[in-house]
Amino acid sequence: MLVSRTLAEEIALALRKTGKTLVFTNGCFDILHVGHVSYLEAAKRLGDVLIVGVNSDDSVRRLKGASRPINPESDRAMLLSALKSVDFTCIFEEDTPLNLITALQPDVLVKGGDYTPETIVGADVVWTRGGRVVVLPFVAGKSTTNIIHRIHG
User: Fold this and answer.
1) Which helix (H) or strand (E) holds 109?
2) SS3 state at 92
3) Whole-number Å distance between alpha carbons of 51 and 1
């Protein structure tokens, strides 16, 4: 379910009060593929509720260039929300999810295999609360960039 930032913060607060484990991850998720699905399923297994921060269209353009995103933010968030592993999605406008992570205070912060815990934005916020930062491996050969290259031939 796509929720506003305010509602995401309320959900996170309610989860903390009930002792549930909140897992957070983020990304562009421009063209949803099997690598994303496997990654999100693994992230969900790390806690009770998975919230996915989705970069806004403007944010994706700043990060990936003028030709991206392929799919608009509302479509990307809706597709992610339809996955069994994803409980909530929340679109963020900034180039990094730091403000959203700071607001949500997740118990577990997850990113993909091209990161190390020390390079993950918001890791310090999670560690300060005694939370965990987890790097999940990529599914080999599965990426949005590879899909775009195949389409263009």
Assistant:
1) strand 108-112
2) strand
3) 9
Q: How many domains are there within the chain? A: 1
Structure tokens, 137: 């491996």
Entry pTM: 0.92
Q: In the numeric block, which tokens belong to residue 102? A: 């700071």
Domain assignment of residue 55, given as a range: 5-152
Nearest to 24 by CA among 92, 71, 74: 92
Give the pLDDT confidence of 76-102 residue by residue, as tens digits: 999 999 999 999 999 999 999 999 999
What whole-number distance in Å separates Cα of residue 10 and Cα of residue 103? 10
Q: What is the CATH number of the domain that holds 62?
A: 3.40.50.620
Rounded CA-CA distance 139/27 in Å is 16
Report the amino acid identity of residue 125. Answer: V
